Amino acid sequence: MRASAAGLLGDTAGRDYAYKLRLFNAFAEPELRQAVAGLGIRPGARILDAGCGTGEALGWLAAAAGARGLVVGLDLASAHIAAAREAAASGTAVVQANLLSPPLASGTFDLIWAVNTVNHLRDADAGLARITPLLTAGGRLALGQSALLPEMYFAWDARLERLTHEAVRRYYRARYGLEERELTGVRAIVGLLRRAGLREVSVRSFLIERVAPLRPADEAYLLEAIFRRTWGERLRPYLSSEDYEELARLCDPDDPHYALRRPDFHFLQSFTLAVGML
User: Fold this and answer.
1) Residues spanned by the domain of 97
2) 2 vs 171: CA distance, rounded Å
3) What is the CATH number of the domain that holds 23?
């Protein structure tokens, strides 16, 4: 696939960030399960997980829909599809396809669950225009997005935290040739649902809050997915040498200043779920 044809964040069928997805789903499982429970899914419901990633949510959705329900996962990446098929319960279908051309029949699903998905699309409105017709009359589309508010990592150092967030934004602008507005437009998920013609739009935000001592799943996500795979050496060009060295110490498990084992470590991240009805 040509680079120009890739998703906003470089997604293609060959893109693989299954490791980070598994880490996030294990980390945020309590809040994601709470969001699923809040939907009041009825037994027998037909559900599409659009952008299912490594498939952990397929099991949560299938449990809510019950034995008479139908759950389908859809994702673009081959590696994610393989992981989702391994994770999915028997009877759950997992389909590899582009969200912009889903090989599914119109009017099939009572609920479409799309979490941290539309932020990967170059045109989120076009994406919703393709999946909304898959709903039954009265069906619901649930758009979930994490980190609509800036995360808090270093409660004791707001300055370094602010500089790190800005360094990440500068890195993404340089890597993908994006303007900041292209990276933040997805915050308006309520507007996306309303422009798609959905009604009775509701929204609820969950606070993912963690304090020391951390669960193993929490430390694994923050260390591997954030400190090493999102920050790390790639941020060096966007920080002063002094600030980068301080950040590196906080992110190093072998350093006595390692942030995740400080007794005052306090992490906050938001997860927002907006739901509209056809």
Assistant:
1) 3-277
2) 22
3) 3.40.50.150
**pLDDT at position 4 over 70:** no
Total count of domains within the chain: 1
* pLDDT tens digits, one per residue of 126-180: 999 999 999 999 999 999 999 999 999 999 999 999 999 999 999 989 998 887 7
